[in-house]
Design goal:
481 residues, alpha+beta, Amidase signature (AS) enzymes, two-stranded antiparallel ribbon, 17 strands
């Protein structure tokens, strides 16, 4: 059973398709594993056991008749509770939505279902997906399977914990500021944040007006246990939809394989934000392994790309969008409390910020033109111990600093200082595990690629993953390597 639940999604779908195992047998093993381990993790917060069993039986019956529903035929998947799921509670961990049961699926959910996936349940997230830890006012705290005293990250903390611990083969997630990449890094799994406006977002919660710069920051992508799983999921969920005209109709052709020796990889562990010695050691060791196997590897970063300013622009667009929905007095108080830039709704300032965003995007495009990928840290630290907020700003918790080898660093910068710049520019990022800390916690890396070249980035990431060897699983859940 432990071997089965720790298979990759591509392995399981192939086994079901080849009649080596039935969809019902896969689901039974997974439900048993969830019953044993989910109480300690609190990763899955809504479980549709009856619906999943019925759907698995239908999948087996269909195969017996020679019918295939698609590339995910019979695969149980989990969905971040950020997306609408027809007939299944969908809350975004927001109390006003505690009893919300939509009649329709989000576009990406519908595409997974149409490809043959079985929607097993929903995973935990912080309220409105607005934290780098996963503590829900509706469902409580999610724990990291590598160390339950640590956070799994946020906002897709439930999904990353589920994939890492063998509770889920594939998770549909979202990323506005690192919500796929940070949990993937903290929990030691793979994640894909696609190019902006490649995957439709309709059906995310709470329902909001789509379009505009901030909307392009939000990405929909998968968490999984292999790069092949990321490739498979992207091929299903990407593509245009009439409800989102900004989603481009781009063909996703898998490029021919290239030897590692043909790849040009740049990397850095220094963007002006301190990182732990373990993080530095893991990235440098990984770069050295690539070089030993003949890959062209150099230390480098774009000369005209300011990580700090990119993060400031992210905040400006985010809080301007929030501020536009607030009463005038609330905006005034926000400015009075020091959020002058964030709550300044001046059209002139907004257009200046858009001009800066375009310049940063062009600078990164220019740099990446000479490289197949760029490697950099995901966060300043591996997963940290659960932190309690010092106060709240509306529903959003405010925390004290994170300790980076004894140095205090702002909570937001420590967690999102490396991730938000790529939401601002729209570049795709694969997050993959490359090492472990001295405490045995996973350490991942961001593999940044060219915009609209997601299949090429995934092909490069698959080559890099071979250098890392088999995926490690957290001890105590079975399937350990």
């Amino acid at each position: 059973m432990d071997d089965l639940v720790f298979c990759t999604a591509t392995q399981i779908t192939a086994a079901i398709r080849n009649r080596e195992v039935s969809a019902s047998e896969v689901l039974a093993a997974q439900l048993s594993h969830i019953a044993r381990h989910n109480p300690a993790l609190n990763a899955i917060v809504t479980l549709d056991e009856a619906g999943a069993r019925q759907r698995a039986k239908e999948a087996d019956d269909a195969l017996a008749r020679g019918e295939s529903w698609g590339p995910l035929h019979g695969l149980p998947v989990t969905i971040k509770d950020f997306f609408e799921t027809a007939g299944l509670r969908s809350t975004c961990s927001h109390k006003p939505l505690a009893g919300n049961v939509p009649q329709q699926d989000a576009i990406a959910v519908a595409r997974l279902r149409a490809s043959g996936a079985i929607i097993l349940g929903k995973t935990n997230l912080p309220e409105l997906a607005m934290d780098f830890q996963t503590v829900s006012p509706l469902f409580g705290r999610t724990n990291n399977p590598w160390d339950v005293s640590c956070t799994p990250g946020g906002s897709t903390g439930g999904g990353a914990a589920a994939v890492a611990a063998g509770l889920s083969f594939l998770e549909l997630a979202s990323d506005l500021a690192g919500s796929i990449r940070i949990p993937a890094h903290f929990c030691g799994v793979y994640g894909l944040t696609p190019t902006g406006n490649l995957v439709p977002k309709t059906g995310s919660l709470p329902r909001r007006a789509s379009g505009g710069t901030l909307s392009s920051f939000l990405r929909v992508g998968p968490l999984a246990r292999s790069v092949a799983d990321l490739q498979l999921c992207l091929s299903i969920i990407a593509g245009p939809d009439l409800r989102e005209p900004e989603i481009l109709p781009m063909a996703l052709h898998t490029p021919p394989p290239r030897p590692l020796q043909d790849l040009r990889i740049a990397w850095t562990d220094d963007v002006g934000i301190p990182v732990t010695a373990d993080t530095q050691a893991s990235l440098r060791s990984f770069a050295a392994k690539l070089a030993e196997q003949g890959c062209h590897v150099e230390v480098g970063r774009p000369a005209d790309f300011d990580f700090g300013r990119a993060r400031q622009l992210h905040n400006l667009f985010l809080f301007t969008a929030i501020g536009a929905q607030l009463p005038a007095m609330a905006r005034f108080i926000g400015r009075y409390l020091g959020k002058v830039e964030a709550f300044d709704l001046s059209l002139k300032r907004y257009l200046q910020a858009e001009s800066e965003r375009i310049a940063l995007t062009a600078a990164l495009d220019s740099f990446l033109a000479g490289w197949d990928a760029w490697l950099c840290p995901v966060t300043a630290t591996p997963a940290f111990k659960h932190l309690a907020p010092i106060r709240y700003a509306g529903p959003t918790p405010i925390y004290g600093p994170i300790q980076v080898d004894g140095q205090a660093l702002d909570y937001g910068i420590a967690n999102a200082g490396f991730t938000t710049p790529f939401n601002v520019t729209g570049h795709p990022v694969v997050t993959m595990p490359i090492g472990q800390s001295s405490q045995g916690l996973p350490i991942g890396v961001q593999v940044v690629g060219k915009r609209w070249r997601d299949p090429e980035l995934l092909a490069v990431a698959a080559q890099l993953a071979e250098v890392c060897g088999p995926l490690r699983h957290p001890p105590g859940y079975g399937g350990e390597v």
